[in-house]
Amino acid sequence: MTCQLPAGLYPQYCLRLSPTFNTWCLLHVSDVHTLSSVPDFEVQGFYFYKNLPIKWVRVVGIVVAVDDIAGLRIYSLDDGSGACIECVVSLKSCRAPPDTNIPANDPKDLLGKRPQPMPPADCADVEVGSVLDIKGKLTTFREEMQIKIEKVKMLRSTQQEVLLWERRSQFRDEVLNQPWVLSEKQIQRCKREEMRGEGCEEERRRKKEKRREEKRQEQKRLREAEEEERRRKQASPVVVMERYRDIKRKKKQAEERWKSSSSSTLLRHVLDDSIRGKYSALGL
């Protein structure tokens, strides 16, 4: 596996136009090991055959070894192309059935009750010498290519295997060996669609953030209302009566101030009128 940038590599927004994009690519194992990795595309899990992006592969071969390591079952597959590849599947924990011949308190019985790692149902009968049709996702482990198994089919006849060989040769001739070239118009269209998608994504993100903020504010108002209701219910009758008296006292004080203010105003008007009449009699 190399890390050189393949010639004619297109931007990420153009990869969906590739005939190998989101497709089970039926390859020789030797071809899988020659795929190139590009740092800008490692996060997406893409590897490249020339400038063709490949993420999902399909291989056909015979199992030459089976190993169980750290909750994984590893099948070493040989397709006769001069290379082998490790195909990995996670083991499921399954509780073993109780042994009626062992006493209930025997330590062996307790050991037998522990969950036992078991392969998926479609891998249960696979053993050394089985011929498999494996579909999976490309991964790497210690700089070596691996396949994370998604689907497994055991081939029961040579005819099935030969049919897949023919399809593999056809895929190589019609896809892998054909140049993948995009016009400038196609590249620009993909770029515009990518930009529109980013704009829509940003708008969706803003709306989502706005809804989240509105929800937080609504929850805050509800909490405040609940807290006020809780305080009101927890208030003792004495406190309630004291509040009532305080409100009544303030109301009475306000009325007295208003009456005092009204009396002063009336007296001032009376004095002003009497003085004005006195001076008017003098002709002033």
Specify Rg, calculated over alpha carbons. Answer: 42 Å
The number of strands is 11
| First-to-last CA distance | 119 Å
Order of helices and strands: EHEEEEEEEHEEEHHH
| CATH class placement of the largest domain | Mainly Beta
Overall number of domains:
2
Number of discrete helical segments? 5
What does this molecule look like?
This protein is an alpha+beta fold. It has two domains: 12-93 and 113-182, OB fold (Dihydrolipoamide Acetyltransferase, E2P) (Beta Barrel), CATH 2.40.50.140; 183-248. It contains five helices and eleven strands; from the N terminus they run E-H-E-E-E-E-E-E-E-H-E-E-E-H-H-H. It has helices at 29-33, 107-112, 158-176, 184-234, 237-281; strands at residues 25-26, 36-37, 47-49, 52-54, 56-69, 72-78, 84-90, 92-95, 115-118, 131-141, 144-154. Strands 5-6-7-11-10 form a five-stranded mixed β-barrel. A three-stranded antiparallel β-sheet has the order 2-3-4, with no helix packed on it. It starts with 24 loop residues before the first strand and ends with a helix. The relative contact order is 0.10. Residues 1-5, 110-116 and 279-284 have low confidence and may be disordered.
